[in-house]
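Sanity check. The docking grid for LJ64HWYM depends on where the pocket ends up, so I'm generating a full predicted complex first rather than guessing from homology. Inputs follow.
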Amino acid sequence: MSSPSKILQIRVPCSSSNIGPGFDVLGVTLSLYLTLTVKILPKHSNLPNFNEHIVLAYSGEGSSHVPLSINQNLITKTALFVLASHNINGFPSPMIININNEIPFGRGLGSSGAAVVAGVILGDIAGDLKLTKDRLLDHCLMIERHPDNVTAALMGGFVASYLRELDSKDIEAPAIPHSETLEDGITANEQAVKQKELTVPNGIGHYIRLKWAKEIKAITIIPQFEVATATARSVLPNTYERQDVVFNLQRLAVLTTALSQSPPDADLIFQAMQDKIHQPYRMELIPGLSEILSSVNPKTVPGFLGICLSGAGPTILALAVNNFDLIADRITEVLKRKKDTQVIVKTLDIVDEGAQVIELTESS
Ligand SMILES: Nc1ncnc2c1ncn2[C@@H]1O[C@H](COP(=O)(O)OP(=O)(O)O)[C@@H](O)[C@H]1O
Ligand SMILES: N[C@@H](CCOP(=O)(O)O)C(=O)O
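Predicted complex below; grid placement will be based on this.
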Protein backbone atom coordinates (compact mmCIF):
# COMPACT_ATOMS: atom_id res chain seq x y z
CA MET A 1 0.00 0.00 0.00
CA SER A 2 1.39 3.47 -0.88
CA SER A 3 1.86 6.08 1.87
CA PRO A 4 -0.92 8.71 2.16
CA SER A 5 -0.52 12.20 0.72
CA LYS A 6 0.00 15.10 3.09
CA ILE A 7 -1.13 18.71 2.84
CA LEU A 8 0.83 21.40 4.66
CA GLN A 9 0.79 25.14 4.70
CA ILE A 10 3.99 27.22 5.05
CA ARG A 11 3.21 30.82 6.02
CA VAL A 12 5.96 33.46 6.17
CA PRO A 13 5.47 37.13 7.12
CA CYS A 14 7.03 40.09 5.33
CA SER A 15 9.64 42.18 7.12
CA SER A 16 10.85 45.75 7.28
CA SER A 17 14.60 45.95 7.86
CA ASN A 18 17.06 48.56 9.13
CA ILE A 19 14.45 50.81 10.89
CA GLY A 20 16.80 53.72 10.17
CA PRO A 21 20.22 53.24 11.81
CA GLY A 22 20.15 49.43 12.10
CA PHE A 23 21.48 48.70 8.62
CA ASP A 24 21.75 44.88 8.20
CA VAL A 25 20.92 44.48 11.93
CA LEU A 26 17.25 45.16 12.73
CA GLY A 27 14.15 43.58 11.22
CA VAL A 28 10.50 43.53 12.22
CA THR A 29 7.76 41.25 10.87
CA LEU A 30 4.58 42.81 9.52
CA SER A 31 1.16 41.42 8.61
CA LEU A 32 1.56 40.57 4.91
CA TYR A 33 2.25 36.94 4.04
CA LEU A 34 3.75 34.54 1.58
CA THR A 35 1.76 31.29 1.83
CA LEU A 36 2.61 27.94 0.27
CA THR A 37 0.04 25.14 0.28
CA VAL A 38 2.01 21.99 -0.37
CA LYS A 39 0.48 18.64 -1.28
CA ILE A 40 3.09 15.90 -0.97
CA LEU A 41 2.01 12.88 -2.98
CA PRO A 42 3.10 9.31 -2.39
CA LYS A 43 6.39 8.47 -4.15
CA HIS A 44 5.90 7.24 -7.75
CA SER A 45 2.36 8.68 -8.05
CA ASN A 46 1.59 10.53 -11.28
CA LEU A 47 0.39 14.09 -11.16
CA PRO A 48 -2.91 14.45 -13.04
CA ASN A 49 -2.49 16.11 -16.46
CA PHE A 50 1.16 16.94 -15.92
CA ASN A 51 4.33 15.21 -16.92
CA GLU A 52 6.17 16.90 -14.11
CA HIS A 53 7.33 15.72 -10.73
CA ILE A 54 6.61 19.09 -9.14
CA VAL A 55 3.73 21.35 -10.14
CA LEU A 56 3.94 25.02 -9.14
CA ALA A 57 0.94 27.35 -9.24
CA TYR A 58 1.29 30.99 -8.23
CA SER A 59 -1.11 33.82 -7.44
CA GLY A 60 -0.79 37.30 -6.00
CA GLU A 61 2.16 39.70 -6.04
CA GLY A 62 4.73 38.93 -8.72
CA SER A 63 2.47 36.47 -10.55
CA SER A 64 2.90 38.21 -13.91
CA HIS A 65 6.67 37.65 -14.03
CA VAL A 66 7.78 35.09 -11.42
CA PRO A 67 9.42 32.04 -13.01
CA LEU A 68 7.56 28.77 -12.39
CA SER A 69 10.37 26.44 -13.37
CA ILE A 70 11.75 24.79 -10.23
CA ASN A 71 15.35 25.57 -11.18
CA GLN A 72 14.59 29.28 -11.53
CA ASN A 73 11.97 30.07 -8.91
CA LEU A 74 13.72 31.40 -5.78
CA ILE A 75 11.54 29.28 -3.44
CA THR A 76 12.13 25.93 -5.17
CA LYS A 77 15.76 26.80 -6.02
CA THR A 78 16.34 27.37 -2.30
CA ALA A 79 14.61 24.09 -1.39
CA LEU A 80 16.83 22.24 -3.90
CA PHE A 81 19.89 23.82 -2.28
CA VAL A 82 18.80 22.58 1.17
CA LEU A 83 18.23 19.08 -0.24
CA ALA A 84 21.57 19.13 -2.10
CA SER A 85 23.39 20.15 1.07
CA HIS A 86 22.02 16.92 2.59
CA ASN A 87 23.11 14.87 -0.42
CA ILE A 88 19.58 14.58 -1.77
CA ASN A 89 19.49 15.25 -5.47
CA GLY A 90 16.09 16.77 -6.33
CA PHE A 91 12.67 16.54 -4.66
CA PRO A 92 12.17 12.98 -3.36
CA SER A 93 8.34 12.95 -3.78
CA PRO A 94 5.97 14.51 -6.30
CA MET A 95 4.34 17.69 -4.98
CA ILE A 96 1.71 20.22 -5.97
CA ILE A 97 2.73 23.61 -4.59
CA ASN A 98 0.24 26.48 -4.60
CA ILE A 99 1.93 29.78 -3.79
CA ASN A 100 -0.04 32.84 -2.77
CA ASN A 101 1.99 35.99 -2.23
CA GLU A 102 0.87 39.26 -0.61
CA ILE A 103 4.40 40.74 -0.43
CA PRO A 104 5.24 43.06 -3.34
CA PHE A 105 8.57 42.41 -5.11
CA GLY A 106 11.48 44.82 -4.88
CA ARG A 107 9.80 47.29 -2.52
CA GLY A 108 11.85 46.83 0.65
CA LEU A 109 9.35 44.56 2.42
CA GLY A 110 11.52 41.45 2.42
CA SER A 111 9.87 39.50 -0.41
CA SER A 112 13.13 37.68 -1.21
CA GLY A 113 13.81 37.02 2.48
CA ALA A 114 10.33 35.48 2.85
CA ALA A 115 10.88 33.40 -0.32
CA VAL A 116 14.21 32.12 1.03
CA VAL A 117 12.66 31.20 4.40
CA ALA A 118 9.74 29.45 2.66
CA GLY A 119 12.19 27.61 0.38
CA VAL A 120 14.39 26.43 3.26
CA ILE A 121 11.32 25.13 5.11
CA LEU A 122 10.05 23.47 1.91
CA GLY A 123 13.42 21.71 1.47
CA ASP A 124 13.36 20.61 5.11
CA ILE A 125 9.85 19.15 4.72
CA ALA A 126 10.49 17.57 1.30
CA GLY A 127 13.64 15.83 2.54
CA ASP A 128 12.12 14.99 5.95
CA LEU A 129 15.27 16.54 7.43
CA LYS A 130 13.76 17.81 10.72
CA LEU A 131 16.20 20.71 10.96
CA THR A 132 16.09 22.86 14.10
CA LYS A 133 15.09 26.53 13.72
CA ASP A 134 18.71 27.60 14.18
CA ARG A 135 19.80 25.18 11.47
CA LEU A 136 17.06 26.49 9.15
CA LEU A 137 18.52 29.94 9.80
CA ASP A 138 22.03 28.75 8.83
CA HIS A 139 20.67 27.64 5.45
CA CYS A 140 18.78 30.93 4.94
CA LEU A 141 21.96 32.88 5.68
CA MET A 142 23.96 31.03 3.06
CA ILE A 143 21.52 32.38 0.51
CA GLU A 144 20.65 35.87 1.79
CA ARG A 145 23.85 37.24 3.32
CA HIS A 146 22.34 40.13 5.29
CA PRO A 147 20.58 38.55 8.28
CA ASP A 148 17.92 41.17 9.06
CA ASN A 149 15.04 40.04 6.80
CA VAL A 150 15.46 36.27 6.97
CA THR A 151 16.02 36.18 10.74
CA ALA A 152 12.90 38.26 11.40
CA ALA A 153 10.81 36.28 8.89
CA LEU A 154 11.88 32.97 10.44
CA MET A 155 11.78 33.94 14.13
CA GLY A 156 9.08 36.65 14.11
CA GLY A 157 8.73 39.99 15.89
CA PHE A 158 11.36 42.70 16.34
CA VAL A 159 14.76 41.05 15.94
CA ALA A 160 18.41 42.14 16.05
CA SER A 161 20.97 39.82 14.46
CA TYR A 162 24.56 39.45 13.38
CA LEU A 163 26.53 36.97 11.30
CA ARG A 164 29.50 34.95 12.44
CA GLU A 165 32.50 35.70 10.26
CA LEU A 166 33.04 32.75 7.92
CA ASP A 167 35.86 31.55 5.71
CA SER A 168 35.39 32.78 2.17
CA LYS A 169 35.50 29.15 0.92
CA ASP A 170 32.32 28.45 2.92
CA ILE A 171 30.31 31.24 1.39
CA GLU A 172 31.65 31.39 -2.13
CA ALA A 173 30.69 27.89 -3.31
CA PRO A 174 29.04 28.37 -6.71
CA ALA A 175 26.25 26.00 -5.64
CA ILE A 176 24.73 28.64 -3.37
CA PRO A 177 21.75 30.33 -5.06
CA HIS A 178 22.21 33.88 -3.75
CA SER A 179 18.81 35.51 -3.52
CA GLU A 180 19.86 38.92 -4.70
CA THR A 181 22.28 38.46 -7.56
CA LEU A 182 20.68 39.77 -10.70
CA GLU A 183 21.61 36.83 -12.92
CA ASP A 184 20.45 33.24 -12.53
CA GLY A 185 23.73 31.31 -12.53
CA ILE A 186 24.06 27.58 -12.18
CA THR A 187 21.28 25.82 -10.28
CA ALA A 188 21.94 24.32 -6.87
CA ASN A 189 20.90 20.96 -8.17
CA GLU A 190 23.28 20.90 -11.15
CA GLN A 191 26.13 22.08 -9.00
CA ALA A 192 25.42 19.60 -6.22
CA VAL A 193 25.63 16.74 -8.68
CA LYS A 194 29.07 18.01 -9.72
CA GLN A 195 30.25 18.84 -6.26
CA LYS A 196 28.72 15.96 -4.35
CA GLU A 197 29.26 17.66 -1.02
CA LEU A 198 28.02 21.02 0.06
CA THR A 199 28.29 21.75 3.75
CA VAL A 200 26.45 24.55 5.47
CA PRO A 201 28.47 25.75 8.51
CA ASN A 202 26.81 25.62 11.94
CA GLY A 203 25.78 28.66 13.95
CA ILE A 204 26.13 31.33 11.25
CA GLY A 205 23.45 33.62 12.61
CA HIS A 206 23.01 34.98 16.12
CA TYR A 207 19.93 36.94 17.09
CA ILE A 208 17.91 38.33 19.92
CA ARG A 209 14.20 39.14 19.96
CA LEU A 210 13.54 42.67 21.21
CA LYS A 211 10.42 44.10 22.79
CA TRP A 212 8.16 46.29 20.67
CA ALA A 213 5.54 48.53 22.37
CA LYS A 214 2.16 47.16 21.29
CA GLU A 215 0.64 50.56 20.46
CA ILE A 216 3.26 51.29 17.75
CA LYS A 217 1.91 50.51 14.28
CA ALA A 218 3.72 50.46 10.95
CA ILE A 219 2.41 52.64 8.13
CA THR A 220 3.92 51.44 4.87
CA ILE A 221 3.78 53.85 1.95
CA ILE A 222 4.54 51.65 -1.06
CA PRO A 223 5.39 53.33 -4.38
CA GLN A 224 4.51 51.28 -7.46
CA PHE A 225 8.05 50.92 -8.77
CA GLU A 226 10.74 48.41 -7.86
CA VAL A 227 14.25 48.91 -6.56
CA ALA A 228 16.16 45.62 -6.56
CA THR A 229 18.00 45.17 -3.27
CA ALA A 230 21.16 44.25 -5.21
CA THR A 231 21.04 47.65 -6.94
CA ALA A 232 20.36 49.48 -3.67
CA ARG A 233 23.38 47.73 -2.09
CA SER A 234 25.62 48.48 -5.06
CA VAL A 235 25.32 52.25 -4.50
CA LEU A 236 26.69 52.04 -0.94
CA PRO A 237 30.33 52.97 -0.26
CA ASN A 238 32.92 50.39 0.85
CA THR A 239 34.26 52.59 3.64
CA TYR A 240 32.70 55.15 6.00
CA GLU A 241 33.88 58.14 8.01
CA ARG A 242 34.18 57.43 11.72
CA GLN A 243 31.65 60.15 12.65
CA ASP A 244 28.98 58.57 10.45
CA VAL A 245 29.52 55.15 12.02
CA VAL A 246 29.38 56.64 15.53
CA PHE A 247 26.21 58.58 14.57
CA ASN A 248 24.46 55.29 13.70
CA LEU A 249 25.82 53.27 16.64
CA GLN A 250 24.57 55.88 19.13
CA ARG A 251 21.09 55.92 17.62
CA LEU A 252 20.85 52.15 17.14
CA ALA A 253 21.57 51.45 20.81
CA VAL A 254 18.97 54.00 21.94
CA LEU A 255 16.34 52.95 19.37
CA THR A 256 16.19 49.26 20.40
CA THR A 257 15.00 50.23 23.89
CA ALA A 258 13.03 53.34 22.84
CA LEU A 259 10.72 51.18 20.69
CA SER A 260 9.94 48.94 23.69
CA GLN A 261 8.71 51.70 25.99
CA SER A 262 5.03 52.48 26.64
CA PRO A 263 4.03 55.20 26.11
CA PRO A 264 6.66 55.75 23.39
CA ASP A 265 8.81 58.90 23.56
CA ALA A 266 8.22 60.42 20.10
CA ASP A 267 11.15 62.87 20.13
CA LEU A 268 13.59 60.19 21.24
CA ILE A 269 12.41 57.73 18.57
CA PHE A 270 12.30 60.34 15.81
CA GLN A 271 15.95 61.31 16.38
CA ALA A 272 17.05 57.72 16.99
CA MET A 273 15.65 56.67 13.58
CA GLN A 274 18.07 58.96 11.67
CA ASP A 275 20.73 57.24 9.60
CA LYS A 276 23.98 58.09 7.80
CA ILE A 277 25.01 54.64 6.57
CA HIS A 278 22.54 53.73 3.82
CA GLN A 279 19.68 56.22 3.27
CA PRO A 280 21.84 59.14 2.05
CA TYR A 281 23.37 56.95 -0.68
CA ARG A 282 20.02 55.54 -1.78
CA MET A 283 18.56 58.98 -2.50
CA GLU A 284 19.64 58.69 -6.14
CA LEU A 285 17.32 55.67 -6.51
CA ILE A 286 14.31 57.18 -4.76
CA PRO A 287 13.49 60.67 -6.01
CA GLY A 288 12.70 63.11 -3.19
CA LEU A 289 13.80 60.74 -0.40
CA SER A 290 15.43 63.52 1.59
CA GLU A 291 12.27 65.66 1.45
CA ILE A 292 10.05 62.65 2.18
CA LEU A 293 12.03 61.80 5.31
CA SER A 294 11.60 65.35 6.60
CA SER A 295 7.93 65.73 5.56
CA VAL A 296 6.50 64.83 8.99
CA ASN A 297 7.77 65.31 12.52
CA PRO A 298 6.35 64.64 15.99
CA LYS A 299 6.03 68.38 16.75
CA THR A 300 3.55 68.96 13.94
CA VAL A 301 1.69 65.62 13.87
CA PRO A 302 0.69 64.12 17.24
CA GLY A 303 1.09 60.37 17.37
CA PHE A 304 3.84 60.28 14.75
CA LEU A 305 7.08 58.67 16.01
CA GLY A 306 9.57 58.23 13.19
CA ILE A 307 10.25 57.64 9.52
CA CYS A 308 12.78 55.71 7.46
CA LEU A 309 13.30 53.72 4.30
CA SER A 310 11.87 50.21 4.69
CA GLY A 311 14.71 47.81 3.89
CA ALA A 312 16.43 48.90 0.70
CA GLY A 313 13.30 50.85 -0.38
CA PRO A 314 11.46 52.31 -2.12
CA THR A 315 8.75 51.75 0.56
CA ILE A 316 8.69 54.36 3.30
CA LEU A 317 8.06 53.09 6.83
CA ALA A 318 6.43 55.50 9.30
CA LEU A 319 5.89 54.47 12.91
CA ALA A 320 2.96 55.98 14.77
CA VAL A 321 0.42 55.42 17.53
CA ASN A 322 -2.44 57.29 15.80
CA ASN A 323 -3.21 59.79 13.01
CA PHE A 324 -2.27 57.07 10.50
CA ASP A 325 -4.22 58.53 7.56
CA LEU A 326 -2.90 62.06 8.04
CA ILE A 327 0.71 60.81 8.23
CA ALA A 328 0.27 58.63 5.16
CA ASP A 329 -1.31 61.52 3.21
CA ARG A 330 1.56 63.90 4.01
CA ILE A 331 4.20 61.41 2.90
CA THR A 332 2.26 60.31 -0.19
CA GLU A 333 1.79 63.90 -1.28
CA VAL A 334 5.57 64.59 -1.24
CA LEU A 335 6.36 61.28 -2.89
CA LYS A 336 3.91 61.88 -5.75
CA ARG A 337 5.19 65.42 -6.24
CA LYS A 338 8.72 64.07 -6.71
CA LYS A 339 7.85 61.13 -8.95
CA ASP A 340 4.86 60.36 -11.08
CA THR A 341 3.95 57.04 -9.45
CA GLN A 342 0.98 55.24 -7.95
CA VAL A 343 1.28 54.74 -4.20
CA ILE A 344 -0.39 52.09 -2.03
CA VAL A 345 -0.68 52.69 1.71
CA LYS A 346 -1.04 49.83 4.20
CA THR A 347 -1.13 50.26 7.97
CA LEU A 348 0.22 46.95 9.22
CA ASP A 349 0.44 45.23 12.58
CA ILE A 350 3.71 44.04 14.00
CA VAL A 351 3.35 40.24 14.16
CA ASP A 352 5.04 38.12 16.82
CA GLU A 353 4.94 34.83 14.96
CA GLY A 354 7.61 34.06 12.39
CA ALA A 355 7.32 31.39 9.73
CA GLN A 356 4.80 28.68 10.57
CA VAL A 357 4.04 25.23 9.23
CA ILE A 358 0.45 24.08 9.59
CA GLU A 359 -0.58 20.53 8.79
CA LEU A 360 -3.93 20.78 7.01
CA THR A 361 -5.25 17.30 6.22
CA GLU A 362 -4.08 13.83 5.46
CA SER A 363 -5.81 11.60 2.96
CA SER A 364 -5.12 8.16 1.51
N1 LIG B 1 7.36 34.75 -3.70
C1 LIG B 1 8.44 34.73 -4.48
N2 LIG B 1 8.64 33.72 -5.35
C2 LIG B 1 9.71 33.71 -6.15
N3 LIG B 1 10.65 34.68 -6.18
C3 LIG B 1 10.51 35.70 -5.35
C4 LIG B 1 9.41 35.78 -4.44
N4 LIG B 1 9.52 36.91 -3.73
C5 LIG B 1 10.64 37.52 -4.18
N5 LIG B 1 11.23 36.81 -5.14
C6 LIG B 1 12.46 37.16 -5.87
O1 LIG B 1 13.13 38.19 -5.15
C7 LIG B 1 13.19 39.39 -5.96
C8 LIG B 1 13.00 40.61 -5.08
O2 LIG B 1 14.02 40.63 -4.14
P1 LIG B 1 14.69 41.96 -3.63
O3 LIG B 1 15.29 42.70 -4.78
O4 LIG B 1 15.58 41.57 -2.52
O5 LIG B 1 13.48 42.83 -3.10
P2 LIG B 1 12.65 42.77 -1.74
O6 LIG B 1 12.92 44.08 -1.11
O7 LIG B 1 11.23 42.63 -2.16
O8 LIG B 1 13.14 41.60 -0.95
C9 LIG B 1 12.08 39.23 -6.97
O9 LIG B 1 12.32 39.98 -8.14
C10 LIG B 1 12.10 37.74 -7.24
O10 LIG B 1 13.14 37.40 -8.12
N1 LIG C 1 19.69 45.55 5.19
C1 LIG C 1 19.25 45.30 3.83
C2 LIG C 1 17.77 45.05 3.85
C3 LIG C 1 17.17 44.77 2.49
O1 LIG C 1 15.78 44.58 2.68
P1 LIG C 1 14.78 44.39 1.47
O2 LIG C 1 13.45 44.25 2.12
O3 LIG C 1 14.90 45.59 0.61
O4 LIG C 1 15.21 43.14 0.76
C4 LIG C 1 19.57 46.52 2.98
O5 LIG C 1 19.23 47.62 3.42
O6 LIG C 1 20.17 46.36 1.92
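Relevant for the grid: The first strand starts at residue 5 and ends at 17.
Also worth noting: The chain has two domains: 6-207+352-360, 211-348.
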